[in-house]
Structures are given as structure tokens and as C-alpha cells.
Write a structure and sequence with these properties.
With 262 residues, the protein is mostly helical. The chain is built from 8 helices and 2 strands, in the order H-H-H-E-E-H-H-H-H-H. Helices cover 76% and strands 2% of the residues. Helix 1 packs parallel to helix 7, helix 3 packs across helix 6 and helix 6 runs antiparallel to helix 7.
Length: 262
């Protein structure tokens, strides 16, 4: 099978950007902070080599098997990255922020159901039952990952948590890429945009490459320092702490003891 010039350029560019991002993560030792994200980036480079070889030097059947095997592993790694981001965003001092875990569990239960309903309700423009199954599987995985990311973002906003660390800012690139994937898969599935399939897929690939550039940039820079308490605020916190301690001591006194002498 042959590739068009545009597909060859996008494929080659994607491999170079993934390799560059992986080098940044290793050289700057960011893999210690985001190990699952680093593994996912490394897998993208490996997938590119495997799929390119299968496309150029094998049959359509072999390429389809390789593509869906890689896609299945890719979805698992994306879910691991989501949980990694959630663990950083929604936890403080190795403990889940109050209310964070129930929100995450609820989204983890609802997202697969919504994704399954959307996959089953679509009518793909497929030439065979196998193509129909592949289209439904694509919609299911895309919607699942999209909803899980949205769930983490919404939970963090509702709980008033910040978004300044590496893992937190990493999610911005993911959100852009997953959102475009959700839109393109939706167009393919429900509006049968086969005439524009290649164009929409190229847009999705281009957005991923922009996200890779963004990730390489943010992981190269130092991580933003945690906000410090200024002296005035520190004095205010100490005063508040003293009042709370006084209130707790006073609450242990009897009613007679709390009556001031005349």
C-alpha cells in the first residue's frame, strides 16, 4: 500500500515530535513526575514504526490487526494518564481531597455507559460488518476518554483546585486533542463524512502534533513554584489558628467557669 505525500509528511513529523518530546521527558527527568505519560509518549513512537511498516510492507488485513491492537493498548494507556493526572490534581499530601474520589468513581461508572449508548445508536457508513464494528469501537473509545478527561477537569474546578503543576498543564494539550477526536469521530459516525474522512483525520493528527510541541515546551521549562504565603497572610493565619485553639480550650470549660467574675 502507498501513502500520499501529505500522509507521509504527517507520519514522519509525528514520529520526530514524539521522539523529541520523549527526549525532553528523559533529559529533564520529568518521567519521575509523570511516568504513565512518559510511557504513553514512548508507545506513540513505537506505534508509528509498527503501523508504518505494516501499511507499507503488508496487507490490509495485517495492518487492520496491528492498528486495532495498538489502538486498544493506546486507550488503556490514555486511561492510565487520566488517572495519573487525577491523582496529582485531586490529591493533597497523598490523600484524596474531600469529595474528589466519589466524583471520579461516579464519572468512571457513567462514562462507559454513555460511550456504549453512543456507539450502539450510531449508523456508520460501513461497507462490511467488520468496518461497522471498527467504527463503533472507535466512537466508544473516543467518547470514553473524552468524558473521563472532562470529569477530572470539572471535579478539579468544583473543588477549587489549582492547575499549575506539570501534570495539570499537561492536561490542556490532552483536552484539545481529545476534543477534536470526539468531534471528528462524531462527524464520521453520525453524519457519515466519508468524503472528508482523510481531511478530518489530518486535522486530528495536526492537533496532536501541536499538542506534542506544547508538551515539549512546558516540560522543558521549570515547574512553577507553589504559591507562597506572604507575611501579612501568614500573620493572619497564625492569629486565626490562635483563636481556634482558644475556642477549643474554652469549649472544655464548664458553664460556671465561663462566667466572668463580678
Amino acid at each position: 500500500m502507498n501513502l500520499s505525500v501529505m500522509a507521509t509528511v504527517l507520519w514522519g513529523t509525528g514520529f520526530v515530535l514524539n521522539a523529541a518530546l520523549l527526549l525532553v521527558l528523559i533529559y529533564k527527568r520529568r518521567y519521575r513526575t509523570v511516568p504513565w505519560f512518559t510511557l504513553w509518549v514512548a508507545s506513540q513512537s513505537l506505534y508509528t514504526i509498527v503501523l508504518f511498516g505494516a501499511f507499507r510492507f503488508s496487507s490490509k488485513h495485517v495492518y487492520a490487526v496491528a492498528y486495532w491492537s495498538c489502538d486498544f493498548l493506546d486507550v488503556l494507556l490514555q486511561l492510565a494518564v487520566i488517572l495519573e493526572i487525577a491523582g496529582i490534581v485531586l490529591r493533597r499530601s497523598k490523600r484524596w481531597v474531600s469529595g474528589a474520589r466519589p466524583r471520579l468513581i461516579l464519572m468512571g461508572a457513567i462514562a462507559p455507559v454513555i460511550a456504549l449508548v453512543m456507539a450502539l445508536s450510531m449508523h456508520p457508513a460501513a461497507d462490511s460488518k467488520l468496518d461497522d464494528l471498527f467504527a463503533r469501537a472507535s466512537v466508544f473509545t473516543t467518547v470514553l476518554v473524552f468524558l473521563m478527561f472532562v470529569g477530572v477537569v470539572v471535579a478539579s474546578r468544583q473543588l477549587g483546585l489549582g492547575w499549575r503543576s506539570y501534570a495539570m498543564r499537561e492536561s490542556y494539550g490532552f483536552i484539545a486533542w481529545v476534543t477534536i477526536g470526539f468531534l471528528t469521530d462524531g462527524l464520521h459516525a453520525y453524519w457519515r463524512t466519508l468524503g472528508h474522512f482523510t481531511l478530518l483525520e489530518n486535522v486530528h493528527i495536526a492537533v496532536f502534533q501541536l499538542a506534542a510541541i506544547y508538551w515539549a515546551f512546558i516540560f522543558w521549562l521549570p515547574e512553577p513554584a507553589a504559591p507562597q504565603i506572604v507575611p501579612g497572610n501568614k500573620d493572619l493565619m497564625e492569629a486565626l489558628k490562635g483563636r481556634l485553639e482558644y475556642g477549643q480550650r474554652s469549649s472544655g470549660l464548664s458553664a460556671t467557669d465561663r462566667i466572668p467574675p463580678k
